[in-house]
Amino acid sequence: MAINLEKGQRINLQKSNGSTLQNVCVGINWGAIVKKGLFGIGSTTEAVDLDASCALFSENKQLEEVVYFGNLKSKLGAVRHSGDDLTGDVGGDDGLDNEVITLDFSMLSPSTQYVAFVLNSFRGQDFGSIPFASIRIYEGTPTRVNEVFAKYDVAHGAGFAGHVSMVMGVFYKRNGEWKFNAIGEPTKDRDLQNTVKTVAAQYL
Hints:
Blueprint: E1 3-4, E2 9-12, E3 23-30, E4 33-36, E5 43-46, E6 50-58, E7 63-67, E8 79-81, E9 99-104, E10 112-121, E11 133-141, E12 144-153, E13 165-174, E14 177-187, H1 192-202
């Protein structure tokens, strides 16, 4: 059964059968904004362009590389991005991920000790105006879910209104094992570059 993550929760990557996850997908599902018309008559749908990204850091918290819509694969192939989704679900929640980042721990450079996931609203649309947004960590591929390991509801988290960037969570290595810290905190940044700087300064 999947764990419903809470902000700040730290978890081991251990499956229900006792083995440890070596290859995970982090999927983000979100919806377009529906606005009611004048006097409440009719409605319009506004596409939402959220961008999921992944930043790799060394033990001394130096940035190694960033995987995002403009760089879909890390140098060693350990991290892969499914590609940019510019709209979100425009016809209601379809239950599928709009963007997926896959992570194979075995292919990471030995120097990598932190793998951080962040979310940015590319057009600057307020997180508080997005009807739903969720993160799930699962074993499988972008098109096939074998087992959902953890879920995280970011749309209903406190304090997201007025923000366009957030830190989703950080995988970190301790004593040779990878664990996950569900951060779920909005930041004051306006773009990916500064969000990555905030991660290095505050969340590793």
